[in-house]
Amino acid sequence: xxxxxxxxxxxxxxxxxxxxxxxxxxxxxxxxxxxxxxxxxxxxxxxxxxxxxxxxxxxxxxxxxxxxxxxxxxxxxxxxxxxxxxxxxxxxxxxxxxxxxxxxxxxxxxxxxxxxxxxxxxxxxxxxxxxxxxxxxxxxxxxxxxxxxxxxxxxxxxxxxxxxxxxxxxxxxxxxxxxxxxxxxxxxxxxxxxxxxxxxxxxxxxxxxxxxxxxxxxxxxxxxxxxxxxxxxxxxxxxxxxxxxxxxxxxxxxxxxxxxxxxxxxxxxxxxxxxxxxxxxxxxxxxxxxxxxxxxxxxxxxxxxxxxxxxxxxxxxxxxxxxxxxxxxxxxxxxxxxxxxxxxxxxxxxxxxxxxxxxxxxxxxxxxxxxxxxxxxxxxxxxxxxxxxxxxxxxxxxxxxxx
Length: 403
Prior knowledge:
Shape: globular
Number of strands: 13
Radius of gyration: 28 Å
Distance between the termini: 111 Å
Largest sheet: 9 strands, mixed
Number of helices: 13
């Protein structure tokens, strides 16, 4: 009986070993082409896809950067370099297949964290390309999306002075959230939302320092591209983008500088926390939205003669800060609502949630209703800390000098 049991156990173990999957379908890193960023441009009637590829180098290798024909570029790193290659196709999938023909390794999208649409392509439409990126298993839905002034390829070919690649520069800037931060998933949801409008960070090339080559610089976020349907219809500058972020409740970090009415000079305040709520209201044919904003801030610099430890002065400063925020939002509303008729503020979703019946009646003609929506802004600011040091008034200084 014991011998039979041992035989059955041995047979079972052998069968289990045969059923183990093992690593028969493994893919080595050395067999992959790692894409760091992708740029999409319009070339005549075709799509041009440019990819920035990470090329590892031996740690003891030379520091020169390699190139790939006329489209390559290298960094000054001794252990790594990047190159840019492009291919054209009638669709994005077609361009990818042609790019694969230029590489001995399989193209791998898992490290691609940046997608840049050139201005020309953005104005003609982006939905088909975003649809492919969402459907294909390789590209990441959490990758950041940008629109560039000029061609996207020009941004990828830049040689940044600090980071290893232009992809890392834009990735880090997106993390700071000093401007819009939109992922592929976010963009797709905006395009399919009730408003059919979106906002994307606008990228420009920073002028190079003196005595530097034209491509020895970086791309930086300098405003917002306004998308209606799936086409770019306009843009907001950097200043107006701040107001847009306040309205969309997407302000992560901000320093607001105001000039108090009570004294010459300026007071700069750093945002600690902010919360924005949209409260829609329908009264007959009149549609309106109340924007309620509550912020908490710290004073980080005071160049006035005001003693901010005085509670009365602090209250006045809070009121002026709230007024400044309201003015920023009002300025950001004008172009998208009155000129471009693009609801990038999520007003449509706010009305749909609170008034589903009324929204169902007007959703097909939202383009007619949106420009007429009245926007009321109620901002409230709270200064938590004014700092230990205060600036003495001129009279106090004179008294000290007399003594």
